[in-house]
Design brief:
2 helices; globular; Neuraminidase
Length: about 290
């Protein structure tokens, strides 16, 4: 019997956070990624191969990486798009805002290894924030946050199975599963001279561990989360880190299970075909991971 972690039905009375730009949310599927990569690279994507997607801080450029295939760089104009060849061992690529490679995830000796220059890093899961200066490595029950410039040196250990790391204000935001509480939680990290210092962190109300962290908007301070409802349908929620308010985000179409904050309307249209998803209102129901 499957073990489901059900979020209890709640009624959130808080409205959308003031100034939130949730109109920039776009939801999509892997089929959309396959279509877009084929458009940019001029060839079909091999069936069954994973495709990862990243964006820049401005939300006007996308980076699609096809496992053992190619990398597509997508902007608003034809001049801003590129198709790059990826070597056979490459699984994922993180680029900074200048478009330079900050890290690559490869398969080596049957294991996934994060390559930063000549450094080889191992763990259960990896992520880099969008400037390409800091990374998080999950080791299961805890995670380490390191400077990319000193990738081998642990800057900070946090008590989460981290999913994602983002730049937030003048510091960092780590989001992941807390195996001790069974909740999805945040950790705030400040950058002090050459030190990383954890300054706070909270459970995300009614979000159990395993709910996926899709993206974070630096402009509105919203996390984009995705789980499933009791019927097995994907449900998207925007959680404002500063206010603690959560709201449902209506998907562009039934069946969408991926999403990003994309500020450029033309890039949104290229990714999903018809622009942004809509903010639906306060979060009224439960989500399962």
């Amino acid at each position: 019997m499957k073990r489901w972690y059900v979020i209890m039905l709640i009624l959130c009375s808080a409205a959308l956070a003031p100034g939130a730009r949730r109109g920039s949310v776009v939801t999509f599927t892997k089929t959309d990624l396959e279509r877009l990569m084929s458009e940019v690279c001029g060839q079909s994507v091999s069936p069954g191969k994973a495709i990862s997607i990243h964006r820049n801080r401005a939300g006007d450029r996308l980076f699609l990486v096809g496992e053992n295939q190619r990398e597509a760089v997508v902007g608003a104009s034809a001049e801003s798009q590129q198709c790059l060849t990826a070597s056979s061992e490459v699984v994922d690529v993180w680029r900074n805002d200048d478009g330079q490679v900050a890290a690559m995830l490869i398969i080596k000796d049957g294991r996934r290894v994060l390559m930063i220059g000549e450094a080889e890093l191992r763990g259960n899961r990896f992520d880099l924030e969008r400037t390409g200066q800091y990374l998080v490595i999950s080791h299961g029950t805890d995670s380490t946050v390191n400077s990319v410039a000193k990738a081998y040196r642990t800057g900070l250990t946090i008590d989460l199975d981290a999913q994602r790391i983002f730049g937030r204000r003048r510091g960092l935001l780590v989001v992941g599963n807390n195996p001790r509480t069974g909740m999805l939680e945040t950790r705030a990290v400040e950058i002090e001279s050459n030190r990383l210092v954890q300054t706070g962190g909270n459970p995300i109300p009614n979000m159990r561990a395993g709910v996926r962290v899709l993206d974070y908007s630096e402009q509105s301070d919203d996390l984009l989360l995705c789980g499933v409802d009791a019927a097995g349908q994907s449900v998207f929620a925007a959680y404002n880190v500063g206010s603690g308010n959560s709201s449902v985000v209506e998907p562009r179409r039934p069946g969408d299970d991926l999403g990003l904050f994309v500020n450029d309307g033309q890039v949104r249209a290229r990714l999903a075909g018809d622009g942004a998803s809509r903010a639906k209102g306060p979060l009224l129901g439960g989500i399962m991971p």
